Amino acid sequence: MDNDSIPEQQPLLDAGRDAGYSIIAVGGGKGGIGKSLLAANLGICLAQSGQKVVLVDADLGGANLHTCLGIDLPGQTLSDFIQRRVESLQEVITETSIPGLSLISGAQDFLASANIKHTQKLRLLRKIRHLGTDVIILDLGSGTSFNVLDFFLTAQLGIVLIVPEPTSLENSYRFLRSAFYRLARRQEAQRRFQEIIQAALEPRNQYGIRTPYDLIRVVAEIDPERGRQYQAWLEGFRPLLVVNQVRAAADRELGPAVATASKKVLGIGLDYIGYVNYDDSVWQMVRNRLPLVLHQPQGNVAQRLWQLTREVQKRLAATSRPATIE
Amino acid sequence: MKDFREQNFYELLEIPVHATREEVEQAYRRSLEIFNPDSVAVYALFSPEELAALRRRLDEAYDTLGNLDLRRKYDLDLGLRRPDSTPPPISSPSASTPEPPSPTPVPEAASPQASPEPSTPMVQNKEATPPASAAEAQPAAPLPQAPPPPPVIGPETVVDGSLLKQLRQARGLSLEKLSEMTKINIYYLRQLEENRYEQLPEAVYVRGYLRLLAGTFKVNPQLVVEGYTKNLKKSG
Asked: Is residue B106 predicted with pLDDT exceeding 80?
């Protein structure tokens, strides 16, 4: 956890409300599982579908989205905005060769940017609102720092990406739990419940809270009405799930299985939207800095990415939810 | 939405209350695959003991819902059916096949996400023949037996399942009614009363249940919680 304390009840961002744009966040807890690759290719597919897309490399401290798009590190990056070397976010936007797709490249000042202050984060998120675009895609870093969780919760659609490995599942379940606790913490104004949520962040806490269900039970024992409110938040928290690097037939069953297990044990419903196969061509493309959906459009991986894009588009069209955090 | 430890067997298997035997079987097999110790999907979600306990409950759900007699009894416990209602069909009905006729409407199917709550339909079923008011309205009917006096609980009292049962009976409550009032799964209420500690969820949940029960019975919660959990500790 970072040391970012939250001013009480301070709204993060009124994201997307009445503004005609959508925010998608790609996260998942673990590094090196293809988040940037998914974000980049999702951005390309959406742009090629006629939407105006800004990709934001929000992996503060580990930015490499520009590489997935095959472009050199732009002269000005998010670092310049965060450090106030430029005032406008527009100044750090780089147009790509793909019509409709632009990039805000990630921060490069590792120590300064990975631990940006809450006020800096608010400024960044508020400026993102005014980019004048259809879709903003946030490529998130790994871990469960408040920066990562807040960016994730800002989005209308939060995608959790996993790969068929125990470490990925372990991190993803931790990420989901942490995201819900963060969501509840941001909504909660009463100190006694804030303290319980804070305690829940510790694996061995005095309340025995290990899952969102436990948190709700503890809160409901104190105040049943408040418990019902937490229940409503939990039911409204429904990230999308994508499985990457699918090799074996059994891996294809992982998405639905994880959605079932998450719902049953954590109480967090996941909307499984599909998978992407493992393919050697993927790393070859990355190595050669070639965007995959453009350079192997007929390949299985590209086809899967297009299918995921269509699923995302369906949900963008259906969602009227302004943002998880209000 | 409920914690799986509080889900009834239908909720646990994520099937509607009118699921056929085949559907029960399919759901059971799918659940066993997902909640397999080797499954990546459950990695880091459970301790090995918790996973084993869940699998035992899945077995129990399958054994109960896969057996017509046991299922009928279980449905009665849940308040889903009346004793004379017809059990669900053995094979899958086609989409247009109506449910078998039943004197009392069976509640709507529970979706996998929205589980059958012990709410309106079940309450209505029970209230159709409430023992107490029926006795009052029909003097000719045999009078219900007066509930036994409530046991007195002190620091030396042995708090076990039979004491919980006495406390319940002293308030004239059926297990179903108590489950409705406390929202504790009837399955766990029964395990509590029968001292089947190994079938109970984690101690933290049991303590929550006991506090709820003590509140319902209007007895000292500390004595009940501490007294009963001593037994849990002894049982290991």
From this structure: no
Examine the pLDDT at B117 and tell me if it is beyond 50: no
Task: Assess whether pLDDT exceeds 80 at residue A28.
Answer: yes
Which residue in B2, B33, B41 is closest to A169 by CB distance? B41
Q: For chain A, how many structural domains are there in total?
A: 2
Q: What is the pLDDT of residue B108?
A: 34
CATH number for the domain harbouring residue B12: 1.10.287.110
CB contact under 8 A, B42 and A164: no
Q: Which of B1, B47, B57, B185 to mutate to test the interface with A (most CBs of A within 10 A)?
A: B1
Residues A111 and A133 in one domain: yes
Torsion angle (degrees, nearest 10) of CA B90, B94, B100, B106: 100
CA-nearest residue to B35 within chain A is: A261
Domain that holds residue A257: 165-276
The answer to whether residues B217 and B152 touch, using CB atoms and an 8 Å cutoff, is no
Domain shared by A18 and A117, yes or no: yes
Q: Which among A62-71, A106-115, B113-122 has the top mean pLDDT?
A: A62-71
Residues of B whose CB is below 8 A from A264: 4
CB atoms within 10 A of CB A227: 18
ipTM, interface predicted TM-score of the complex: 0.79
